[in-house]
Design a protein that fits this description.
Two copies of one chain form a homodimer. Chain A is of the alpha/beta class and 288 residues long. Helices cover 56% and strands 10% of the residues of chain A. In chain A, the strands form two sheets. Chain A has a five-stranded parallel sheet, with helices on both faces. The structure holds a DNA duplex (30 and 30 nucleotides).
Amino acid sequence: MAVSNAVDQFMQRVADEFESLPRQLQGVARYLEQHRSSIMLQKVNDIAEGSNVHPSAVVRFAQRFGYTGFSEMQAVFRDAFRERTEPSGSYQHRIRRVIAERPEKLDETQIARSFIDACRVGLDELVERFDPARFHAAVDVLASAEHIYIVAVRRSFAIASYIAYALGHTQKRVHLVDGLGGMHREQIHSIGKGDALIAISFPPYGKETLFCTRLARQRKAKVIAISESDLGPLAAHANVLLKVDEGSVFAFRALTSTICLCQALFVALAYRLELKPNEAAHSGDFDA
Amino acid sequence: MAVSNAVDQFMQRVADEFESLPRQLQGVARYLEQHRSSIMLQKVNDIAEGSNVHPSAVVRFAQRFGYTGFSEMQAVFRDAFRERTEPSGSYQHRIRRVIAERPEKLDETQIARSFIDACRVGLDELVERFDPARFHAAVDVLASAEHIYIVAVRRSFAIASYIAYALGHTQKRVHLVDGLGGMHREQIHSIGKGDALIAISFPPYGKETLFCTRLARQRKAKVIAISESDLGPLAAHANVLLKVDEGSVFAFRALTSTICLCQALFVALAYRLELKPNEAAHSGDFDA
DNA sequence: CAACATATGGAATAAAAATTCCATATTTCT
DNA sequence: AGAAATATGGAATTTTTATTCCATATGTTG
């Protein structure tokens, strides 16, 4: 990654040769320079028109710089864009490829590093896709509820258990639906209007979680769902849906983004409730 | 959230109708949702492939939502992107709107952003201070133990519960010391030589965790401690100590680095045990 | 479980986009 | 100014991409 991106390199070459280019191709060059950010989605015709030039001139331009044609040149712009906007995708790709290529050589340190890297990318995306309106709405719901129920199963259960712990430091009445003794149903049973449910679930969505979510909704409780997408079964019954997209590395789902979001939620709530930070995170004093 | 852009509106419609869509079209919907930012430069085939669907299904999807075909639907994404990036006066407009929209909200958003940022820094440090020798040693201990006990209380309990879940996917016998019914002592009681204990604790160190750690050591079990420093009380009784330094923000301790490390540990173990990734993270299939 | 409705995917077709070809125009050089 | 070299744009061709058609599969309902 030493040298900057491929587009810059290419544009540099164009600049160098610019003087020696025929009139029309200079026009194309100027146009590219001026619109580099949207070349990736333009057709030859758009560019030709924009440069007041015949489409074939654009093709010739590309060929002049060593590409077989316009398409190949455009690919440079497209790929550069992709790389910028889907760093995680390329990450995971790379990692997956590494594994596919040499499974024996992959030592534990590499595994750990890759995994941590992937988690970092996950947090980057969390910031990027952060939705203030929804976050705010979620804090609202929590702030105005007296009883807060929390449900999640299997992999996500750890998250629920953490939230329950954290909320325990507020004045709210906290109910962790942990399913102990198979009593999910009984534990959520008393939820009602004015209460809030935090439900955390990812594909393939635990049925206990879905059950609780539906029940909560029937009982007019507010539901905060933490899930992957607006389309899953949780979304339908949620008042607020907070999206978290954990990239999976090694076909293995991370949890960092989810827990980070939940902690952020708790911190924001603590502020809203005017717990002084020290008071809330009194945590620090009788903690694990 | 007034009248945001065309893409959001469209995706909203998709979300609304999602439930009533045939299976394949739901797949397409999910794909779009997950990749909205790059739909504009994908071909029908890319999307079809990404959604595990025949190209014609993608066209049908577009038509279902009132477009004449895929191209017209894609134009929505393309135009939205252009609008955002064209250097027209819209930029200042946007900024002004953002400011106008969130006068109060700014606070919570800031809190959340700072918190997530802090977590990112935490992960950065985790990579930097990563100690391969210790990590390797930890994997060794786990790989050679038949029974694995896990203990942590309060804030760290969530981590323990996650580890227990993850290890449940291996052949190891996993014992989560959860203290249910006040039975920490009884739960750890049967630990012995050849077993391993994972203990997670941070200042001010839960006494249950310390108790278990000491007992495990007496019984000649191997102890993996996850803690802040080499000097704490855990260190003395640990065979391997993995250091995690969560920065505290708002006088509030994050958990991301810890859980990230634990997941990395599990992934490395899974590889060591030659669980195929898919097998281990079969997780994905009957997960939360 | 039959009859119907709906969904799916292969293959043909249509449409769009890119590329090539070539006749003509323009520039350059002597 | 005339010849040679180069550039240009119209139109044909090729390639790629999108769409439609339809036979088969799948699920649903009475």
